[in-house]
Amino acid sequence: MEEENPNKLPALNSPLRCIVKLGGAAITCKHEIEKIDEENLGAVSSHLRQAMVMSNSSPKVVGMDWSKRPGSSEMSTIDDFGDHTTLNWSNLIVVHGAGSFGHFQASRSGVHRGGLHLPLVKAGFVATRISVTSLNLEIVRALAREGIPSVGMSPFACGWSTRERNIASADISQVTEAINSGFVPVLHGDAVLDNLQGCTILSGDVIIRHLAEILVPEYVVFLTDVFGVYDRPPTDPNAVLLREIAVDEDGSWSIVKPQHMKKQVEITVAAHDTTGGMVTKISEAAAIAKLGINVYIVKAGTNHSLRALKGEVKGEIPDDWLGTFIRSSK
């Protein structure tokens, strides 16, 4: 596999503060095909704005979605920009999952297994991309309505590809240039070309790990539909939240809090999830933590997630914070 040379990338003008993963299950209604959880998405968008503004004040929100929304008789106003002062934002990248968008189309057609020569797979590739890019547009619009200068970036359109489902090519120069220009890139899990099997699904968790390796953010936050990683499916009444996990250099990990917990955890993956679900999330989060970058897995739309986004959960994990902190054991 040909490795990307980070030295050829445009340098960031200022350090990257955070990469945020919006879990598909947190922002969509996972049991209803292509339905967004508007309440959660609105809360997450508001939290991201609060986390990004580098001041203690609460500036007026001036929306950037000037398009006509379904059911609305008027377009968003642009009059407020006459006296609007440009806010000082911290650098941020958003990557979102698909949730009830894309996964069903991909699993029904077998896109993740490859085989573009098959009519069903080719049709499924198109259908999957229609679905995930439509979700990407709605997330960008939700962020824009909070005054966040977000721009959607699809991995397929940016030339990302895989080889045996591992990243083979990923030009992130557009990402760095967008950040340097004052934008917030919004990437997503996508159907991409694969050098060996023709095509596959590139998950948002794998995208985050690749971005973290090259751009080295201060920390990474995974926003999910549960409070963090549990020792068994969180629907089990006996499930225990794993509050702190340490990752060794060889990639192995151990539970720090609660103490005396067994390392083994039970993980389930939804039948329609073509990206590995929590299995992929934990392995990618561990790979990021091994680089010395702290990772927080926390429930979206809560005060706990807002504190993580703001970078307030550092060092010793506060007793009143609910989430999973994954760090290097060094």
Descriptive notes:
The chain is 28% helix and 20% strand. The protein has helices at residues 24-27, 38-52, 103-109, 119-145, 173-180, 204-215, 277-290, 303-309; strands spanning 18-22, 92-96, 150-152, 161-163, 166-169, 184-188, 190-194, 198-202, 219-224, 229-230, 241-242, 244-247, 253-257, 294-299, 324-328. A hairpin with a 5-residue loop joins strand 12 and strand 13. The longest helix has 27 residues, at 119-145. The model is unreliable at 1-7 and 267-277 (pLDDT under 50).
Which helices and strands, and how do they pair?
Layout: E1 18-22, H1 24-27, H2 38-52, E2 92-96, H3 103-109, H4 119-145, E3 150-152, E4 161-163, E5 166-169, H5 173-180, E6 184-188, E7 190-194, E8 198-202, H6 204-215, E9 219-224, E10 229-230, E11 241-242, E12 244-247, E13 253-257, H7 277-290, E14 294-299, H8 303-309, E15 324-328
Parallel strand pairs: 1-2, 1-9, 2-6, 3-6, 4-7, 9-14, 12-15
Antiparallel strand pairs: 4-5, 7-8, 10-11, 12-13, 14-15
Strand runs, count: 15
As residue ranges, the low-confidence spans are 1-7, 267-277
N- to C-terminal separation? 29 Å
Strand content: 15-25%
Return the string of H and E elements: EHHEHHEEEHEEEHEEEEEHEHE
Portion of residues within helices: 25-40%
Rounded average pLDDT: 85
Q: Kindly report the spatial arrangement of strands forming the biggest sheet.
A: 3-6-2-1-9-14-15-12-13
For the largest beta-sheet, the strand count, sense and barrel status come to:
9 strands, mixed
Work out the helix count.
Answer: 8
* Overall 3D shape: globular
Which structural class fits the helix and strand makeup? alpha/beta
Radius of gyration over C-alpha positions, nearest whole angstrom:
19 Å
